[in-house]
Amino acid sequence: MKTINKNVPINNEIREKEVRLISSTGEQLGIVSSKDALRMAEEKELDLVMIAPTAKPPVCKIMDYHKFNYEQAKKEKEARKNQKVITLKEIRFSPSTEEHDIDIKANNARKFLQDGDKLKVTVRFRGREAAYSQNGLKILESFAGKLEDVGIIEKPAKMEGRNMIMIMTPKKS
């Protein structure tokens, strides 16, 4: 079933002279005047809803508008429930971070990647440390090497201001 915009004209809001009418069962009733279409909808105690306002002539359907809105909201809620939200976790280093500390942070990062989260790995340079950016690059390469079984590098290491940033994503199973 197609989604209908919430701001569609219904019943007396339809100002077109002629509309292409579809019955509540889905059969084509042809092109009729909007007054006749509205009268048919009222006889069945349903609403006349314009489902394709850009068509020539516009397409209207006889349906229970409130029930339709309820079903659409239910479908949208179900779709939101099933979607996976990917969060971005960040791990920070300094250029003087020791190997043991990198191992500990790699273990934490492994959990993040296994949970399906993206990982932003940052090396922060302060003061004169920025002159030794190759140290930060070694740290990021070492870190990525420890996680190559669970993650891949989406964005390689790159200096952005005083930070060197690398982005990793989980490997597809």
Architecture overview:
Strands 2-1-4-3 form a 4-stranded mixed beta sheet, with helices on one face. Strands 5-6-8-7 form a 4-stranded mixed beta sheet, with helices on one face. The protein has 4 helices and 8 strands. The two termini are 33 Å apart. It is α/β, with parallel strands linked by helices.
User: What is the H-and-E element order?
Assistant: EEHEEHEHEHEE
Give the overall average pLDDT.
86
> How many E strands?
8
Query: In terms of per-residue confidence, which ranges show pLDDT below 50 for 5 or more consecutive residues?
Result: none
Helix content: 25-40%
Main sheet properties: 4 strands, mixed
Note the beta-strand portion.
25-35%
Give me the secondary-structure topology.
Layout: E1 18-22, E2 28-33, H1 34-43, E3 47-52, E4 59-63, H2 65-82, E5 88-93, H3 99-114, E6 118-124, H4 133-146, E7 151-160, E8 163-170
Parallel strand pairs: 1-4, 5-6
Antiparallel strand pairs: 1-2, 3-4, 6-8, 7-8
